[in-house]
Amino acid sequence: MANNLKWYQKHFLWRRLRINRRYKDRLFRFLFRDKKDLLELYNAVNGSAYSNADELEIVTLEDAIFMKMKNDLSFIIANQLNLYEHQSTYSPNMPLRGLLYFSRQYEGIVAQHKDQLYSSKLIKLPTPEYVIFYNGKQEQADREELFLSDAFETGRGSGCLECKAVLFNINRGHNQELLEKCRRLWEYSEFIAEVNENLDRNMSLKAAIMKAVDSCIQKGILEELLRKNQAEVLHMLLTEYDEKAHMRGIYKEGEEAGYQKGKLEGYSKGEEDGYAKGERDGYRKGESDLLVKLVRQKLERGKSIPVIAEELETEAAVIEEIGERIKNMAKSQ
Length: 333
What we know:
Blueprint (H helix, E strand, L loop, with lengths): L1 H9 L3 E2 L11 H5 L3 H12 L10 E2 L1 E2 L3 E2 L2 E2 L2 E5 L2 E8 L6 H20 L13 E8 L8 E5 L16 E6 L6 H6 L1 H18 L4 H15 L3 H6 L1 H40 L1 H30 L4 H8 L3 H17 L1
Parallel strand pairs: 7-8, 8-10
Antiparallel strand pairs: 1-3, 2-6, 4-5, 6-7, 9-10
Helix pairs in contact: 6-7, 7-9, 9-10, 10-12, 11-12
């Protein structure tokens, strides 16, 4: 396994995780970019007591982009390949994302062994561990296990493949024992809770974030980081919250337009069918129009297809196709 670790450090499919300004960073990843903080988080999750941060090796996929997936935190310790993801939107498809991620990582390991894949010698692999930290508004249990096989037609435990993701609800009031073991995770939970409480009071997004920053500094929550990086934290959260709000607004407009269209069509072929069709058409058109608009804006700023795909959480092939359509429209004008 030691040879594997040395290879991780030099092979072109891997590199040390760092804050890359080409990509929209997220506050969760920003908070745990330091090995000491990441080790504390690992110990809290696993009930371990590692103290040497040098035993932890941070790794990431090339360009941190794979199947729309932000590679939040990926690291190796104690012969475990750990993937830690933060999610503010619940998705039952996380095990599938994990399977694709780990497959890509193992593909890199196999590449160093070349023809040994078909030999009688066993290729040693780090044990995969997948943990999700959830702080969305949908109610979730403190701890939940998600299984890839739940997606199979024959149900959990069937088939020859499995990938398990363990989800921890880190919203305020949940998993208190876990949060007490990792102060930085607790601080993150409290800070986001304050932002959301301010938003619930109908404050603007910027005002909600700034008030949360001031309040947390006074309480000693993320105090040093917030004092030194207020502008960066504000930018990360504005981007993260704003894109979600913008998308929800466009979807809502599409639904309302679809409702009106559906009502009109409903009189001629059944109001219920017309409503359903109009709602779907409006929703899809609103989503499609927004995506094209965002891609055009980002292309005009000189951003590449992979970067746009990562920022919009969309496959690169889809962004490339939209880019071609935009070019063709420009030529025809």
